[in-house]
Design goal:
Radius of gyration: 15 Å
Strand content: 25-35%
Structural class: alpha+beta
Largest sheet: 4 strands, mixed
Order of helices and strands: HEEEEHEEEHH
Helix content: 10-25%
Number of helices: 4
């Protein structure tokens, strides 16, 4: 699996859809884990953890890598429930406010009680658990996140 240079990744974002995995993590109370995004796209919104699948990376390996990176614990994809395929379209990208981003997202739900203090701060500067009815009624929860509980 090769990592892309920043300039190559910028070209790809401007020209093609990206494949990603979103992690819809629920605790025993049915609350959803959300992080407050610090980076584009979806900057300034509460959003579920997740990330893109890399070239030549099998989905099982991507799931292990992303759960380890986003949740601090590697989880097998077979332990999650597949929710379906979603399309996320953004007017901006990680590199440019004027370049749109198109994600084809594989949504997976899993139950996990996890300490918010141990979660990484690269993409999200804070985390919280929100009940589905609460997140559906908040303007600062991104619409793409709301789709997972509607």
């Amino acid at each position: 699996m090769a990592f892309l240079s920043e300039s190559t990744f910028q070209t790809i974002i401007g020209a093609t859809p990206l494949v990603s995995i979103d992690l819809i993590v629920k605790n025993a109370k049915g609350e959803v884990l959300l992080g407050y995004r610090t980076n584009r796209p979806a900057q300034g919104y509460w959003f579920v953890p997740g990330g893109r699948v890399q070239k030549n990376e099998k989905l099982d390996n991507a799931f292990l890598r992303l759960t380890k990176a986003e949740l601090g614990v590697a989880i097998e994809r077979s332990a999650a429930s597949f929710m379906g395929v979603f399309e996320h379209l953004y007017d901006d990208s990680a590199f440019d406010e004027a370049v749109s981003t198109h994600y084809v997202v594989l949504g997976y739900e899993l139950e996990l009680d996890i300490s918010l203090d141990a979660l990484p701060k690269e993409q999200h500067n804070q985390y919280g658990w929100m009940a589905p009815e609460e997140l559906l009624n908040r303007d600062d929860v991104h619409v793409h996140t709301k789709w997972y509980v509607e």
